[in-house]
């Protein structure tokens, strides 16, 4: 299993029956592949649909039905079209049960930076600030390190996405839960030891008792 | 998927002292079967937030007549002499709010906004005691958001995902109120199989609705 | 012609091709009878429809299609359903070309009072404050006097509906245009002399040149 | 009733220096024929307010590539490298706004509200230079309303009253932008006889639309 699949599978276990979930572009979008249809989960694409379905077969794509990345999608039975005002009303109003986003940095306060690298990458925040501010639960799905540097840091050096503490971080090495006291290590990736995680992390981790391996359906 | 409740079962969920957003305009679009069940049960000390208190024998007017309401937030009570009489007798406290302000306050509550900046009411007694905010040289009243314990919604069609569609002037406050109740109970005129309401016809996405009332008969 | 018909006919002449118009309950609602269908005017009922039509024939009334007074109406071809948020968005945002409302008092500043008589009549402002604040043009349609007292006064003693100066007052005696300098007498009702109007008016009227009789289609 | 314009005639109405609200999300729901006609005409110094600048060759991206745009207000420009390059070169000034804030600012402009009170952006660099308002113990950014000289709307169906209906994720910013342009030009995929779009299917009432583009071919 590659790192991305591992992360996606673990995040999928956070999703409960009947939830409304928004998956970010890239790694987070893989999560949908591991959520059983029987759960009756609805996925929101913030560009305007609740009840996002799989990619349509070749030749059956419709230019009026796309996800937030501009890719063709389908709609499940019971889907609803929403305009951008309703879409972000649902997000900011706490009606979105969970958002899964990528991250550039998360720090000991649980603050997320994921939208800007000053001087390098200024794409705009899109919906990220609203999602992190408003969603009932915010899960960050990301590689533990990038180019050898820990993405989990004492204090974000990149611009924050919101002042809200995220609820969970899932990486290829660990599951970490930010709390008022700091970052609590909850799970290890299969075969990964505590020392490995500590060495790969540029922040203090709170370790309480035995840390179990991630369960992956 | 949401199971459908009998009106009695829905009425039982609403305790004494609850705050209720109730859809309808002069009872058009109000959840009448649910209101009847509430009257049967005789819940007390309710706060009713609605455009109006209809008239005796109709919609929210039935709750007024039954002495179940201690507080009303509405834009108009003039067509229900019982509300007026109970207000004058001190049995009901009334907050009267301009109609456009009322609907925006509920929308703000439901969509996670901090309030409404409106020119309506500036220079009138509606301004009394409120903060006035100047934006780009114009003065606006800051009106606070409204949420409630329950939103009681009258709809035309529902499916078992909870998606709602409305007919003509029976929309009124219903789509906005469905955003702002901690628990949302919808009373549709009919329930159709999932997939029958086209995504573009859904005005209230099912993710907002907690309970449906069973079909009449 | 009785006084109400006279007022309604004169107000109807203010309505131009293609306008969106909101008519208040009572006297103002009579105006629709005198607007030629060929003008392509759309009437808004603030409870939720643009394209209000005539009363439907007996037996063809539908409880989902009513006006703001709760009466059964029909919809013209090209009608649109709107919820209360859109309805008042159109009103407050200046998209409503004209509103015609009744009045209790209008004063020399052109301020209207029409929603409350303290201690006597406290029905709530309904949509009146939004309409007077936001409509592109506000026309007051009312009898010149009530119980022998002029309704056009130096300064309103009743609570104001808005701080906005209304655009035109049409009574059974005169057409008066409030301006920055005061109330300008524009037209006399058929057969009514200047002295009659002055005697019936408890405010200063600016009279410039000859005052023509009202033209009535 | 509104006549329908050829794209060239509509493009001619838009002068150099105009501000434009342009619907669409990654060009889905954008008025492509109108944009093509504008590129043909080569209008200069435009302000484009849109969710994004799409990508080169699509939607608003065509205006960027043609060097017609001097200012952009958007939530995301990351998928159009030309916008990024021109921003870095100082040819385009960019204001980046969280997506949910952008749509509410436009709605506020169109609906006569004084601004938006949002939690999104608090504690981030989006807060810089903005007024923070405390309401009931929570802090919100005051974001100002947005209006523009023109709103360019992509729709699915129109009738000659100007009523518009949209399909699926091609709603996005279009219904809100139709409220906030001094002149609103809609490009429907088809125009149907008046009365064919059911009142409940109308998402933009015709009173908001000034001009329709003729049908393709």
Account of the protein in words:
The complex is a heterotetramer, with two copies of chain A (217 residues) and two copies of chain B (217 residues). Chain A has 217 residues and is an alpha/beta fold. Chain A is built from four helices and 15 strands. Chain A has one domain: Glutaconate Coenzyme A-transferase. In chain A, a hairpin with a 2-residue loop joins strand 13 and strand 14. The longest helix of chain A is centred in the first third of the chain and has 10 residues. Chain A starts with a helix and ends in an 11-residue tail after the last strand. Chain B has one domain: Glutaconate Coenzyme A-transferase, CATH 3.40.1080. Chain B starts with a strand and ends with a strand. Chains in contact: A-B, A-D, B-C, B-D, C-D. Chains A and D meet through helix 2 and helix 3 of A and helix 5 and helix 6 of D.
Give a quick account of the main beta sheet of chain A: strands, pairing sense, barrel closure.
10 strands, mixed
Could you tell me the mean pLDDT of chain A?
Answer: 95
Residues in β-strands, percent of chain B: 25-35%
**Helix-strand sequence of chain A:** HEEEEHEEEHEEEEEEEHE
How are strands sequenced across the largest beta sheet of chain A? 4-3-2-1-5-8-12-13-14-15
